[in-house]
Structure formats: C-alpha cells, structure tokens
Specification:
seven-stranded mixed beta sheet; globular; Spore Coat Polysaccharide Biosynthesis Protein SpsA, Chain A
Length: about 290
C-alpha cells in the first residue's frame, strides 16, 4: 500500500515514555496509510528494543540515526530528510496524540501548507500542569509578537516543500522556541498555519519541579534568541533600570502565604525570566 504521510518523532533517551505515543499512533482512526520515523538523537537507553516491539502494531515504523548533533531540531531535520512521503506530521516521543490526529492533519494539508491543533496538559502531567503559565487546553494557534501565529513543534504538519524552502529547523537555536523561529521564517515566506481542532495533542509537562524549571528556563532563552534574531519593531525591550525594577517586583511577589503550588508557579515564572536575562547577556542584546 502506498504511504500517504510520514509521522516523524524526534527522540532522545525516551524508551521509558515513547510507548504512550506509539500506542496512540497504533490506535488511529480513519487514518490514511502512514509510516513512523523515529529520529534517534543518540540515545543510550534501550530505545531500539522498545521500538522493535511495536512492529506488529505499526508495521511501517523504523529508526533513523539522528546523532550527528544534539538537539530536537537536529532530530526533526534528520527525520524529515528520511521520510518517504512529502506530507510530514511531527510529534514528540513523550506526548500522545488523539485517535483522529493523523487523519485530521493529513486532511488539513489538502489545502494548507502548515497545520497544527490544540494541546491539553492535564492527562499526562497531572498536578504539574498547574505550575506553568499556559492554558490547560488551548483553543487556537499560539500567538507571538506582531500577531504572528505558530503551532507547537510536537503538533505540526507540513508539506516537505515548506520545510525545504524555510531551510529546516535552526539547529543552533536553543530548545524552547525553535518551533517559533521556524514559524516566523515560514511566515516571512508567506506560509500560514491552519488550525485543526480535531488534531488534539496530549502534551506532557515535566512532572518533577526541576524538570519544569529547566523547561521554563529554556523557553526564556528561546524568547531572548528570537528577539535578537528578528528584532521585531513592535517589541520595546526594557532598559537596565526597568529590567531591575521588573525583577524586583517579581521577587516581592513571592507567595509567602500561598500554597505549595503557588510557590511552584512563582518559581517557573522566575526561571523563565532568568532564561531571558542570561541568554540576552550571552547574545549582547537587551532582554525583551
């Protein structure tokens, strides 16, 4: 049977969680024929054995070597390079897609160059979904400066031509906003995302506080890098004095009388701001 689309999963040491995603892909409803390309970014766990155990449920699954450099952008690029079709669907190893995900995104590509759907954070994350300043379920595309929209990197569909014209994912971009960088470069070429409500993603937020803080710190770094790279005119970065004032206000807002979850939420906000400031200093630009 001729394959209709390719599902690319960038992966690093995810043998303990990838079964959630593979089970979700094996349970797709009304989906066209698709392959699964697991792009291994140099895993040292038993990922290969775990993936091999899914060949009965997913006969068109294979692993490709994406260890030439470290990072999710490297793995996405290598996975897309090795995909056998021109319709690319990207998801992550530690999440789980809805049973209609493949069918919905494949159908969306009939009339759109890029597509993405909603994400919910409760199913796989539990209490930690309340620690980060994002909605427990999204209701549209994510928006950045100037009204530019994007889809999550782990819930993206595109035509190969788009990926080629954009130049792939920037492998030097810090994890945390690399999908926004891709979307902005696509935007500048005239490509726009279509929102597909049926393409639901169950998104996993780290369940340990250290992991959540690292996630938010990286997001702050990515935001600062995005500003330095594009310098959008609508963004007015804070002066040194305004930045100090801003950070002092955040410190004063520590929820001494709040709950443990309130303090965790405050810590994730501080981690995000710290990521922005540290990366801005590294790049020699003001922090947005």
């Amino acid at each position: 049977m001729r394959l209709a689309c390719s599902v690319v999963i960038p992966t690093y040491n995810a043998a303990h969680v990838i079964h959630h995603q593979l089970r979700a892909l094996a349970a797709q409803r009304d989906a066209p024929s698709f392959e699964v390309v697991v792009a291994d970014n140099g895993s040292t766990d038993d990922l290969a054995d775990v993936v091999a155990g899914w060949t009965d449920a997913l006969p068109d699954i294979r692993i490709v070597d994406a260890s030439r450099g470290r990072g999710v952008s490297v793995a996405r690029n290598v996975g897309i390079q090795h995909a056998a079709t021109d319709r690319i669907l990207v998801c992550d190893a530690d999440d789980a897609v809805d049973p209609r995900w493949v069918a919905a995104l494949h159908r969306a590509l009939d009339g759109s160059p890029l597509a993405s759907g909603p994400a919910e954070t409760v199913t796989l994350s539990g209490p930690s979904s309340g620690w980060v300043p994002i909605d427990s379920i999204s209701t549209g595309l994510y928006e950045t400066w100037g009204g530019r929209t994007y889809g999550l990197g782990g819930n993206t569909a595109m035509h190969r031509e788009v990926w080629e014209r954009v130049g792939g994912y920037d492998e030097g971009f810090p994890a945390g906003a690399e999908e926004i960088d891709f979307a902005w470069r696509a935007w500048d070429l005239g490509y726009r995302f279509t929102y597909v409500p049926e393409a639901l993603l169950h998104y996993r937020i780290r369940t340990d506080l250290r992991g959540v803080l690292r996630q938010q710190y990286n997001s702050g770094r990515g935001t600062a890098t995005l500003y330095e790279k594009f310098r959008p005119p609508e963004v007015v970065p804070k002066s040194a004095l305004r930045r100090i004032h801003h950070e002092l206000l955040l410190l004063k807002q520590f929820p001494w009388r709040g709950s443990a979850d309130d303090r965790r939420r405050w810590a994730t906000l501080i981690a995000y701001e710290a990521g922005k400031v540290v990366q801005s200093r590294r790049l020699g630009c003001p922090a947005p």
